Amino acid sequence: MTTSPAPSRGLDPRSPRFGAAITTVLLALDIVLTLNDGTRTIGIVLLAVIAALFAWGGLAGIARHPYGAVFRRLVRPRIGPPAELEAPEPPTFAQRVGLVVTGVALVLALIGVPYAAPVGAAVALVAAFLNAAFDVCIGCLMYVWLVRVGVFRGRSSVA
Predict the structure, then answer these.
(1) Please, are residues 48 and 106 in contact by the beta-carbon 8 Å criterion?
(2) Are 115 and 105 in contact (CB under 8 A)?
(3) What's the DSSP call for residue 112?
(4) What global pTM score does this model have?
(5) Which H, E and C letters describe 85-103, residue by residue?
(6) Is 143 part of a structural domain of the chain?
(7) Nearest 5°: phi and psi at 43?
(8) Which residues are CB-neighbours of 63 under 8 A, at least 6 positions away?
(9) Is residue 156, in this structure, part of any structural domain at all?
(10) What is the domain count for the chain?
(11) What does R_g of the chain's alpha carbons equal in angstroms?
């Protein structure tokens, strides 16, 4: 999953983990807000913002995600360059998976399905936490598996 491509194609692997840490906090807050009747609407709006952030990373590419810009500007200068770079396709796919999970939860919540928002946020929270805390990106692992079984055509250094 990790490779050493040319700098223009590589991604600092610490950047998606940084974003996953922020996402973990936002999703935990979302669960609390959506479980409380008085703040449920705020929680649903926050879930829409989270889904939009996943859409940004999944559709524009992980390298263009706002969290990546914050990481490049504020964090990376303080911690130095990475030991190796990562292909951007797996974390970009992971953003798409996050979009599907939070998007489905959002739509179900908006049509009135009870607990759709906190359950969807909890599923996404588990994935974001695993990435942030243990460097286990479930969406990235799914991407690599899908390349290996031939669903996607990935770069040879990824599969």
Answers:
(1) yes
(2) no
(3) T
(4) 0.90
(5) EECCHHHHHHHHHHHHHHH
(6) yes
(7) -65, -40
(8) 11, 88
(9) no
(10) 1
(11) 16
